[in-house]
Write a structure and sequence with these properties.
The chain is mainly beta. The chain has 1 helix and 2 strands; from the N terminus they run E-E-H. It has one helix at 67-72, and strands spanning 4-9, 27-32. The longest helix has 6 residues, at 67-72. The radius of gyration is 30 Å and the shape is elongated. The relative contact order is 0.16.
């Protein structure tokens, strides 16, 4: 595993990190390790669902429900 280990003045890090007061104006050691080896720079394409073939809905699907159906649902 590759990593970076370097001793540096904390003043150079103030624009990168919000350092605690105890580490300001000191020489600090910075160690950078990879968090994940499988990071992709390009986003994955969206997957398209296609496992279910649904016929188009008939126009009557959008008609209002009969009153007895509405009452059966308790609405």
């Amino acid at each position: 595993m590759e990593y970076l280990r370097q001793t540096i003045g904390s003043a150079k890090l103030r624009d990168v990190f919000d350092l605690p007061l105890a580490l300001r104006d000191k020489v600090v050691e910075v160690i950078i390790l990879p968090a994940d080896d499988n990071i992709s720079e390009t986003p994955k394409p969206k997957r398209q669902l296609g496992f279910v073939k649904v016929p188009p809905l008939p126009e009557s699907f959008f008609d209002p429900l009969p009153e007895e159906e509405i009452q059966a649902w308790g609405l």
